Amino acid sequence: MRVPLPQSGEPWADLKARMRAYAGGDVRWRDGKTAVYVFNAGPEVEQVQKEAYGLFMSENGLGPLAFPSLARMEAEVVGFGLSLLNAPEEASGVITSGGTDSITMAVKAARDYARKEKGVTGPLNIVLPRSAHPAFDKAAAVMEIAVRRTPLKDFLADPAAMADATDAATMMIVGSAPCFPFGLIDPIEALSDLAVERDLWLHVDACVGGYLAPFVRMNGVDLPAFDFALPGVRSMSADLHKYGYCAKGASTVFFRSAALQAFMIFDQNDWPGGRMITPTLAGTRPGGAISAAWAVMNFLGVEGYCAKQGAVTATRERIQAGVRELGFTVQGNPQLGLIAFSHPEVGAFPIWAKLRSRGWFTSMTSEPPGLHLMLSPFHAEVAETYLADLAWALEAVRGETAPAGAVARYS
User: Fold this and answer.
1) What are 95-105's pLDDT values in tens digits?
2) How far is Cα 39 from Cα 243, in angstroms, rounded to an integer?
3) Do 280 and 146 lie in a common domain?
4) Do 82 and 317 meet the contact criterion of CB atoms below 8 Å apart?
5) Model-level pTM greater than 0.85?
């Protein structure tokens, strides 16, 4: 039912109470029982997010001349990201509103590069593995670009299959670091070799891992190469509001050079309002998202991030071992903070529903059907509770589906 705007205003205290009541049905992510949508780095980081966001909530990143403070903070945040991802000195980037924005702008840049620099006319296409994020499909739909998804090999992008799918009209190939469904880093080095050999634009979608993987590597984990250290990588996306633990919505999109980034920028002068230059899909850019990103990154620093990300990977390792003990199969060999797993005998959705009844809210995979966790530092405190509830859910579903007269086992 449509609700009309109230004739008279209400006191803030009353509105605040109503808002809290509205939230009564939301997931209780601060309790650690949510493993999707929210990245819980603890109350201290949350406080920094809120206060820093509030300080620049009304400022607009669209006007760097009016708000040089935001321009400075954005430049510093971009510099942090470029350094973490081994970008060359001539590399460049901007803060966007989220991963979809970052991916869309990288696709736009690659499209314009193909048209203006390579002289490609007619329909264009993007080649990407089946596990790549649907944001590429969304960007392609907006720009009328064909999408060619290729089969996976051991849950990873198959460079040979991707090579077979490319042609003279291929404007971009894509690898993930990691992909969302399985939390696995694609063989980016092989994709880089392909990109160099055929002069293809390789975009690495590190929206999930861009601010996680560098610190996991600093903590001693042997990760495969995935960033600008590889010569074929021309652009990357990395979300600040995921494992950067910054306020929503904030992401970054990076380019190997400012010359490549120039193909992303929108520059319009043919209207009565004067010249307008915007680096991203958005016009108005919330100052709070920029300031909160700057504050959180400076608050944590390398040592803080290493500690947070160490907690994430340790928790994933504990859960990975625990689900295997319960008879689940883990998809691939996850090394970061995501994990997907399925049971050979019991369906994923009934287990998910049982866990939901105990307050857990997580995501699922469809190919193959499985449970999916995107872990945060706070999950270190509830990992054992999750595994105990998972064991209970597994046996509860088994009991409900057991033949007549069978005895269910509960732990």
Assistant:
1) 999 999 999 99
2) 7
3) yes
4) no
5) yes
